[in-house]
Design a protein that fits this description.
With 396 residues, this protein is of the alpha+beta class. It has three domains: 95 residues, conserved putative lor/sdh protein from methanococcus maripaludis s2 fold; 95 residues, Elongation Factor Tu (Ef-tu), domain 3 (Beta Barrel), CATH 2.40.30; 128 residues, OB fold (Dihydrolipoamide Acetyltransferase, E2P) (Beta Barrel). It contains five helices and 24 strands.
Length: 396
């Protein structure tokens, strides 16, 4: 009986020992698991983290060094004057005051004195063509002019002493003198430009060859146009304004434009631009009213180019405006970036008003006094796109 009690006591002790061991082992495993997922970092904080974010809340964080390298510039917005703008299309034309049409001085067959092509730079006095008439039925006109001149001169020389001696009347002598002067002018006009190739046609001014109207072997008569020469120093900007803006034409004072082959904005005020005319009626074949300006050409604009035109009209005060470089667009909605401090930028939706191609009116979204990114807005926008990229987690 004693042996049976001793066996039960030993079994109970072993059970208690096993339970304590299992509880301690489970607790160690729980502590190990907890430590695995909360490994302390160097500063004692939990090491469970995402990649470093570029955002604090809704702000975009961009270090000053990176902003400077990306060309980001910001300035404080203030209210000021802006102008009404009519946006339309137009065309750049060579100014008529810069063009000269060269015509044939005699009738005859044309030959080029040298190779000529449109756009070629031509100096004043350059021989462009020869016009020969020796092979024609009426003969060489320059020779005929010489013969007529010599005959008229002989008659004039004969009559001069006779009128002094009252042998012929003043009336008869006047007719002889007129014939002589006419023949002399004709001969000198042709004779001094005559060579063995015919009468030479020279450039009356320096410029560029705009249009050639004849080719070798063509027959021309006196006064026929053969070439158009342009200095290309001035241009006309002809804007076609829709009739609905007719009441505002009287307020137009200047313009800016952008050609079809460039994003550069040209300002007429920087090119001595002047308003030449404002049409009083629409062109018969369209519903547009022409408005024409003259401007200096610095050689960077090609006549004949089409342009987007921003007609500048009356001024308005108390307007917030920003340069085009401050604006970004997403699916038809426009945004700007407000600099909160030297590190943080805030994306702000804005509503646009009139634009002159360089600056745009802001009708809502800004009150004035904000510091807005005016250059490098795209770089700030790209920095902000990292917000959409999820960070990855390092677990240990």
């Amino acid at each position: 009986m004693k042996i049976q009690r001793l066996s039960l006591l030993i079994a109970a002790c072993m059970a208690l020992s096993s339970c304590a061991h299992n509880h301690e082992h489970d607790h160690e495993h729980e502590h190990e698991h907890h430590a695995l997922h909360n490994e302390p970092t160097h500063n004692g904080e939990s090491h469970h983290h995402d990649d470093e974010s570029h955002h604090h809340g809704d702000d975009i964080i961009m270090e000053p060094e990176k902003a400077a390298a990306a060309g980001v510039e910001a300035s404080t917005v203030s209210r000021g004057t802006f102008h009404d703008v009519i946006v339309t299309s137009g065309k750049l034309l060579a100014a008529s005051c810069d063009e000269t049409t060269i015509v044939a001085t005699v009738s005859g067959i044309v030959t080029h004195a040298q190779h000529i092509s449109e756009g070629m730079d031509i100096s004043q006095g350059t021989v462009l063509y020869h016009i020969a008439s020796a092979s024609l039925q009426d003969g060489d006109q320059s020779e005929r002019a010489r013969i007529s001149y010599l005959a008229a001169k002989r008659e004039y020389d004969r009559a001069l002493p006779l009128v002094e001696d009252k042998i012929i009347s003043e009336k008869d002598f006047s007719i002889i003198r007129t014939d002589y002067e006419t023949a002399r002018l004709a001969y000198e006009a042709i004779g001094r430009e005559t060579t063995d190739k015919g009468v030479s046609v020279k450039a009356p001014m320096s410029g560029y060859m705009k249009q050639c109207m004849v080719k070798d072997g063509d027959y021309v008569q006196v006064g026929d146009p053969i070439l158009v020469l342009t200095r290309n120093q001035h241009l006309y900007l002809r804007a076609e304004v829709p009739v609905r803006y007719y009441s505002q034409l009287g307020n137009i004072r200047s313009a800016k434009f952008r050609t079809q082959f460039s994003d550069k904005i040209f300002d007429l005020e920087q090119r001595h631009g002047t308003l030449l005319s404002s049409g009083k009626s629409a062109v018969s074949t369209s519903s547009y009213v022409p408005v024409t300006f003259q401007l200096d050409n610095h050689g960077d604009i090609v006549p004949g180019a089409y342009a987007e035109v921003f007609l500048i009209a009356g001024e308005r005060s108390d307007v917030i405006s920003l340069p085009q470089t401050a604006l970004t667009e997403e699916q038809g909605i426009y945004y700007i970036y407000i600099q909160e401090d030297e590190h943080a930028y805030h994306k702000q939706e804005v509503t646009l008003g009139a634009t002159d191609g360089e600056n745009t009116e802001i009708t809502s979204g800004l009150n004035g006094g904000e510091r807005v990114v005016t250059r490098g807005a795209i770089s700030v926008k790209l920095a902000g796109t990292s917000k959409a990229i999820p960070g990855h987690t390092h677990s240990h």
